[in-house]
Structure formats: C-alpha cells, structure tokens
Design a protein that fits this description.
By secondary structure, the chain is α+β, with helices and mostly antiparallel strands. Helices cover 17% and strands 16% of the residues. It contains 3 helices and 5 strands. The protein has a 5-stranded antiparallel beta sheet with strand order 1-2-3-4-5, with helices on one face. A hairpin with a 7-residue loop joins strand 1 and strand 2.
C-alpha cells in the first residue's frame, strides 16, 4: 500500500494574474502611426521603415535622430531623440566671459550619443496627432540644446499639526 506522501511532488504551474488596474485585453483603436506622425521642418528627413504603422524615424544632417514607436496594445507611443556625434565647436573668443558662456551652453545640451525619452499616453489623448506634434516640438527638439532635468515634483503635502498656509477662497476657518 502506498502512502499519500510517497508520491512525487509536482508544483503546479503558477497562474498569471492580471492586476486590478489593468485595462481590458482589447487593443486601443489607434490610427496607424504614419497617419498621425507630424511633419518636421527641414533639415529633418523621414526615413522609411519596414513597419510604418508602428514606427517612424527622422534623421538630421548633424547626426541627430528622432524616433516614435507604438508600444504593445497601442496604450502608449514612445518617443526619443538622440544627439548627433559632434558638439558645436567653441570659437576662440576674446573675453573669458564669452568663453565661459559658450562652455555653459555646450554643457547644457544632451551630449553626443545620449538619448532622451518621453511617452505619450494614448488613452488620455483626445487629439492624438496634435498632442504628438506638441510633444515633439515642446519636449524632444528643445532637449538637443537644453538638457531636460526631469519632471518637477508636486509641492509636498502639509504636515500633521501644521496650519495650512494656502488661501482657500470661500471658506472660513
């Protein structure tokens, strides 16, 4: 007679659970990326890709590149910009102050080969093409000359026991 404990023990395969905040498994109804990709002013040139409905790439003569990619299920569009291989030269200036300003401007930009990424959430966008164009124009292209330092943090909450110094209109304490 065999005992129940004599059987080889097997571990059942773990069941993948979806988090409670996960969206339905359906894809977002997203238009093809080549239809909503903004046109960039010259000298930016759009490169041909093998999947134009999911990826777009632009090149600049200075070696910079800008890319867009639809992430899985169309929930987000990842965007990035990569600085070209060369920094602008610092001219031989007459005064040390002008040379210091030129060095500071050079240090403030994304360094050669470095990349800056941003993401566009497609679920919260009502005008996808306009939002994507604004993201590229206002966040990515300025990163070439003025390196972003991140997203500013919200102000800290008031601490327990401290009075709230912000003015509340229409309320009395």
């Amino acid at each position: 007679m065999t005992d129940a404990f004599d059987r080889p023990r097997t571990t059942p395969a773990p069941r993948r659970r979806r988090p409670a905040f996960a969206a339905p498994r359906d894809d977002i109804d997203l238009p093809p990326l080549d239809q909503i990709t903004p046109t960039l002013d010259p000298p930016w040139l759009k490169e041909e890709t093998d999947t134009p409905e999911r990826k777009a790439t632009f090149r600049h003569p200075d070696g910079h590149s800008l890319g867009l990619r639809v992430q899985s299920r169309g929930l987000t569009i990842q965007t990035w910009i990569t600085a070209g291989p060369y920094l602008p030269p610092i001219p031989d200036l007459a005064t040390p102050d002008e040379r210091a300003k030129a060095n500071a401007a050079r240090d403030a930009r994304i360094q050669p080969g470095r990349t800056w990424h941003t993401v566009l959430n497609t679920r919260t966008s009502n005008a996808l093409a306009e939002d994507l164009g604004a993201l590229i124009r206002d966040r990515l292209l300025p990163a070439l000359t003025n390196k972003p330092r991140g997203i500013p943090a919200p102000p800290p909450p008031t601490r327990i026991g401290q009075t709230d110094t912000t003015a509340h209109e229409g309320t009395q304490k």
